[in-house]
Amino acid sequence: MNTAKLIEVLEVYFEAFAEHDPSRRAELLAKCLTPDCAILGHSHVFAGYAAISDKIAGFHTNFPDCRLVLASGLMTFDNIVRAANAIVRRDGSVVARGESVSEISPDGRLCRIVPLWEANLPPVPASWPAHLAVQSLPKILDATKP
Question: Is residue 145 one of the residues assigned to a domain?
Fold first, then answer.
């Protein structure tokens, strides 16, 4: 995977999320997403440029004066990229934090995006065999501390 190309694509993606003009947003989406790209939300799949553009318009309605931003470096493997992101206000304060796991198409554009926003997973079912489970782990482990 060409990291420089990926960074360019992600920059255009974040600019598309900031764009209020639907025509300009469509141009940006075509540069960074494949025509059949899908964003898999927690309750809806937004597939194709029009649906994703509508999702972005909804983002602007739900989070006025906010931007979606990159909040970490990139972890890549094969054609998959994982990164932290955030929704921030104009003053830089964070409204929400999350991660996205995305699939990169052979032409370098994004083709599947799975955003994961501050979601805590449910506990292991009580019926699950104890020897195949562990109690919930802390969110962040500090490997430098015993």
Answer: no
